[in-house]
Amino acid sequence: MPDSDLVRAYERLLANARSRGDLLDETSGQELRRHPRMRVRVNHVPQPMGPWPMAADISLSGMAFHTSEPCEAGRVVDITLGPDISVAAEVLACDEVPVLHEPARYRVRCRFADDDQGMRLLVALKEMETLQDNAG
Questions:
Q1: 48 exposed, middle or buried (CB, 10 Å; 0-12, 13-18, 19+)?
Q2: Rounded Cα distance, 37 and 130, in Å
Q3: pLDDT of 46-96, one tens digit each?
């Protein structure tokens, strides 16, 4: 169970994402998730996250990212953000997409092993975005 400060931070970030229009349609395509998906503004977050070049969106239960190399479904990957946050995730699918972010050619969807760890990663990412917004 995440601590109450982390839960309050998540609830605040979720409300802010709703007001800014950063929540993605949860019912579209194959990317159904148990929790709301938030767009990751890649120009506001240090990249890469672990070995993955471009984060695309994140929820408590999973995320999608773009990469130049394919990942096979079922593989467990570590997604890291700085020295303090590392989250294990299972690759659900890897689809080739038109090149949007050189050299990323694949969109990888994965599920976190634990929603609590997903919350830590999501809150850290969104707080970094807010710091960048305030600095710019």
A1: middle
A2: 17
A3: 554 555 556 778 899 998 888 888 889 999 988 877 777 888 899 999 998
